[in-house]
Design brief:
By secondary structure, this protein is of the alpha/beta class. Helix content is about 35%, strand content about 15%. It is built from 15 helices and 13 strands. It starts with 11 loop residues before the first strand and ends in a 5-residue tail after the last helix. The protein binds pyridoxal-5'-phosphate and zinc ion. The site of zinc ion has 8 residues, from loops.
């Protein structure tokens, strides 16, 4: 066995979740031309991978972690499970994936009352998990451009912030023939998230309304014009995001039987990908038991929670009108990937029982309190990571977590992308619609020790003495 670029080539097909029709994977399709359903991609030759047993695959993937071939360092560490018709030259690698699993600090675990860790997906290049999907989708686009000799292609996405940051970054890196356009709901992404596509040189277009509205616009563009859509209707992104499952399994020595994964749910692509990844590993014998998956939704944007909270025979799918949420990246009332969730959740529970897939609901207050608490204990979680932690707290309160289970919380983006919400918490300035009342004991603010005039007309040495004196008085320092 070597860590050379693999020789296996699969054959990818789109499978429609609406009518079951299949379409070859060598052209860009988003929804079924026949029934409008969403797709999942499948390797027609997947069964031939079963020639090797689970131990062989585990060994191969472990060896690849030592490879210096960058094409095998990111999501394509799991090449055969990803998009195995790509050649090495197609693969785009910006350092995404293999994000750290960081055990919650001892004090935080004590507070929460169980053992858990964060998987810090904010440590991806554009600071969210969206890079996983983009690495795969852009590699596929490069393959298309190469094999079709396309000379120009516009990449387009609507976004709650992180998708556009990731899409603009990868498009800027690949360069010609790609050009990136992002469509954002005006005033509904954080200043940090807005700065990202601007910095990457994308054309940034804003429309009034919320994400769901922008998504409708992008759908019309994708249907009628020659553009590459990078929203999660693009199934190649789902493939890339499966890497989260592969890495989690690998980190825990390929034994995930006692894991409970907590995943914030917005457009539902991430939770789809994670379930799909675990199911593939199970099929190949790479893992022998599935973990439990907990999706988490805010009560301000909870269509998936509402669906699954009804008894099985009473479930009806209904989009909701969202209300403002601090988990802004998951503030979606009509998730594109819901049919994918339904399909994969069904497969999950049929293999591992009803308790293997659940959705929990949290309040905005719980999300904010959880994020602030986590970060005060040395973590770097975003509001959606706070949502994961709030989900764990509620799941524990509902008695859903057993002794000996270990929770892995997906912190989907970096803390600094959502520092505006931290500011609102610390300064008690949340608009009332958010329904968040800060715990002012947790508020933290800079303190100006000397007025600006203290620096004027004095030497550096004199200022240093004054400054030091002010610090000594503030901290009550005793001399040594
Ligand atoms: C996109 C996003 C989500 C929601 O993921 P879905 O795949 O849309 O369910 C959650 N958190 C962050 C930080 C995101 O960027
Ligand atoms: Zn169809």
């Amino acid at each position: 066995m070597s860590v050379d670029f693999p020789s296996y080539r699969g054959q990818m097909e789109y499978r429609c979740l609406g009518c079951g029709r299949r379409y070859p994977g060598d052209s860009l399709l988003y929804t079924c031309p026949d029934c409008g359903g969403v797709f999942l991609l499948q390797d027609v030759r997947f069964d031939s991978l079963k020639e090797h047993d689970g131990a062989w695959w585990r060994d191969l993937f472990d060896k690849r972690l030592m490879s210096r071939t960058t094409a095998l360092r990111g999501v394509f560490t799991y090449y055969e499970l990803m998009a195995p018709m790509l050649e090495e030259e197609d693969i785009v690698y910006l350092g995404e994936a293999h994000t750290p699993v960081v055990a919650a600090s001892g004090a935080l675990q004590d507070k929460v009352g169980c053992a858990f860790a964060f998987k810090n997906d904010g440590q991806n290049p554009s600071a969210s998990f969206k890079d996983r999907g983009m690495a795969c989708a852009f590699s596929y686009l490069k393959w298309l451009c190469r094999t079709r000799q396309w000379d120009e292609i516009l990449t387009v996405c609507a976004s709650t912030g992180d998708t556009s940051a990731a899409a603009a970054l990868y498009a800027a890196y690949v360069g010609k023939p790609l050009k990136s356009v992002v469509l954002l709901p005006h005033g509904k992404v954080t200043p940090q998230q807005l700065a990202q596509p601007l910095g990457s040189g994308a054309t940034v277009l804003e429309l009034p309304g919320v994400f769901d509205d922008c998504m409708k616009v992008v759908e019309i563009l994708a249907e009628k014009y020659r553009v590459a859509l990078l929203n999660s209707k693009n199934s190649w992104r789902i493939l890339g995001q499966e890497s989260f499952a592969y890495e989690t399994a690998q980190w825990f020595g390929w034994d995930v039987a006692n894991l409970c994964l907590f995943v914030p749910v917005g457009n539902s692509g991430n939770i789809t990908a994670i379930m799909s990844g675990f199911l593939k590993m199970k099929e190949l014998g790479i893992i022998t038991a599935l973990p439990r998956i907990f999706g988490v939704q805010s009560e301000h944007a909870d269509p998936v929670y509402r669906y699954y909270s009804a008894p099985r025979d009473k479930r009806v799918w209904e989009p909701v009108t969202v209300r403002p949420s601090v988990a802004q990246a998951a503030m979606i009332g009509n998730p594109v990937s819901f049919p994918r969730v339904r399909e994969l959740a069904e497969r999950f529970v049929s293999e591992a029982g009803e308790r293997s897939f659940q959705i929990v609901q949290v309040t905005e207050q719980q999300i904010m309190d959880a994020m602030i608490q986590a970060n005060r204990h040395g973590h770097i979680v975003c509001t959606q990571g706070g949502e994961s932690l709030a989900g764990l707290l509620n799941a524990r309160a509902l008695g859903l977590i057993g002794e000996g289970e270990y929770a892995v919380l997906d912190s989907t983006a970096h803390q600094i992308k959502f520092s505006g919400f931290q500011n609102m918490y610390f300064s008690n300035t949340f608009p009332p619609e958010y329904e968040v009342t800060p715990d002012m004991n947790l508020a933290n603010r800079p303190e100006l020790l000397l007025p600006a005039s203290a620096r004027e007309g004095v030497s550096v040495a004199e200022f240093a003495r004054k400054g030091a004196q002010a610090v000594v008085e503030r901290l009550n320092l005793s001399s040594k």
